[in-house]
Write a structure and sequence with these properties.
Number of strands: 0
Order of helices and strands: HHHHHH
Distance between the termini: 57 Å
Number of domains: 2
Strand content: under 5%
């Protein structure tokens, strides 16, 4: 089924609520044609702000999973696996690629590091069953170490 995106041009704000995908297509078309008077500016601004928040959440999520697996690697050496090593590599790659696309997120990554580490400890406690005092209250590794593709904690 094909959608005629032109049929909704007179009500962009309503279209945002009725059919988000068509709203996106119409917005892109209006931008390409430089028909700025056709834009649903309020929702467009909100969407752009959401994209920025989503980028921050994604890099924070990758950092949290990376830290979680590094903690498990260090504090459960008898259970080390290729799966953990693979997850560590995957999340380092995701972070590296996110920073290539948006270098300014490196500042956010640094700012969120301590909080993300605390979240990783919370998850690690639940996942491993280890005593809370097993894990240092602040991260013993530098961000650069954590992101170094050749490094694993002993």
């Amino acid at each position: 089924m094909t959608h005629n995106i032109n049929r909704h041009q007179d009500a962009p704000a309503n279209l945002y609520e009725q059919d988000y995908y068509i709203w996106l297509k119409q917005t892109a078309l209006s931008l390409r044609k430089r028909e700025f008077d056709q834009l649903d500016m309020e929702n467009l601004i909100e969407e752009i702000e959401d994209i920025g928040r989503n980028e921050k959440r994604a890099i924070e999520s990758n950092q949290r999973v990376l830290l979680l697996h590094l903690l498990k690697w260090k504090y459960q050496p008898q259970q080390r696996s290729g799966s953990w090593r693979g997850s560590i590599a995957e999340h380092r790659i995701r972070i590296r690629k996110a920073l290539q696309d948006s270098p300014s997120l490196k500042n956010y990554l640094s700012e969120a590091f301590a909080e993300t580490y605390q979240d990783a400890i919370t998850i690690a406690r639940q996942a491993t069953g280890l005593e809370p005092e097993t894990f240092p209250t602040s991260c013993e590794w530098a961000l650069q170490q954590v992101l170094d593709e050749a490094w694993l904690p002993d």
